[in-house]
Amino acid sequence: MASSRSAVPEHYVVPDFTQTKFDFHPTPALLTGRIVVVTGSNVGLGLWTAIHLGKLDPKLLILAVRTVSKGETAKTEVAAKSGLAADRIQVWELDLTSFDSVKAFAARVNSSLPRLDILCENAGIASFDWQTTGDGWEAQFQVNALSTGLLGVSLLPLLAKTAKLPQENGMKEFKPHLAIVGSGIHSAFTWEKNANAKSLLTDFNDRDSPNAKERYAFTKLVDNYLARKISHLPDAQNVVVTAINPGLCVSELVRNAPDEMKHNLRSKAMPTEEGAKNIAWGSVAELSEKGAYINKMAVDEPSPFSLSPEGLELEEKLWKEMVELWIKTEPSVKQVLAK
């Protein structure tokens, strides 16, 4: 049986980020008149991403969180640190461990918002023990990949519609962005083809799969794949789609890690405020690259594996299976994915 404590593979060398500082100074009031959604924004990277984006004067900033009460606490902090008026910050419920919650959130956005300028999919988890969701999926796999992808394709049409809306008074030129938060740890994933698996999704959802030992790294590789594939959908023609490596930060992501691992990771981490600048940059930057991988506030190359023939084969097969799953889960996305 594969080890369950595998969020950081043993062979992965964790870079030292302790001296890292980022110079994030976007155009003031860049988001005036615009609507922004940040998932997982009650704590850690998501909280600081919301603060950074809140400083750019959005008309509405939505904190999409699993626990609304925690989101309300975060709202107070975002308002205080960003200067954005509290009445322009809302807290909406979103639980990525549930496809029904993803569908309900997407339906609420699509039915009640006139536009969507940034969807920053920051929410993610790192499990150090095997956990499954009510939908039957390994928790990291569903939260970091399957639900993240479903939300992205569900809201892509609204992002595309927003790109065609006229500029209102005070607005600056800005293309809608779909930003997916990944991780540099995706480079630690190595694929072991399993001839006995019925499908890739069932293989990666199997506790006894040879691929189960690097589950977190795998989900972050999938985030890169999501950005690349979504960016080539017709509705993404005028939408900037990115996968972002925030870097190792002092955050709540490793709160359930074994003490020694937690200490080792935090000894090489930068403040979460700094890492979130990568996410904010990737959520607003003017980019022409399709599905760009963002690292240190710049477009970078993802892992050699992800660009190799084998990695591209995995990308194509996974995408096909995920599309089938999403259409089965939410038939309305077929129109987006079938174009």
Summary keywords:
339 residues, alpha/beta, Rossmann fold, eight-stranded mixed β-sheet, two-stranded parallel ribbon, 11 helices, 40% helix, 12% strand
Q: Tell me, what is the CATH class? A: Alpha Beta
SSE order in H/E notation? Answer: EHEHEHEHEHHEEHEHEEHHH
- What is the strand content? 5-15%
- Give me the secondary-structure category: alpha/beta
Number of domains: 1
The count of helical stretches stands at: 11
What does the largest sheet look like?
8 strands, mixed
Strand tally: 10
Radius of gyration: 19 Å
From the N-terminal CA to the C-terminal CA, the straight-line distance is 41 Å
Please provide a written account of the structure:
It contains eleven helices and ten strands. The protein has one domain (35-337): Rossmann fold, CATH 3.40.50.720. The N and C termini lie far apart (41 Å). With 339 residues, it is α/β, with parallel strands linked by helices. Residues 1-5 have low confidence and may be disordered. Helix 1 links the parallel strand 1 and strand 2 (60-65).
What is the secondary structure topology, with strand pairs?
Blueprint: E1 35-39, H1 44-54, E2 60-65, H2 68-82, E3 89-93, H3 99-112, E4 118-121, H4 139-163, E5 177-181, H5 200-204, H6 215-231, E6 240-245, E7 249-250, H7 259-266, E8 270-271, H8 272-284, E9 292-295, E10 299-300, H9 304-307, H10 309-329, H11 334-337
Helix pairs in contact: 1-2, 1-8, 3-4, 4-6
Keywords: Oxidoreductase
InterPro entries: NAD(P)-bd_dom_sf, SDR_fam
Pfam families: adh_short
Question: Summary?
Answer:
The protein has eleven helices and ten strands.
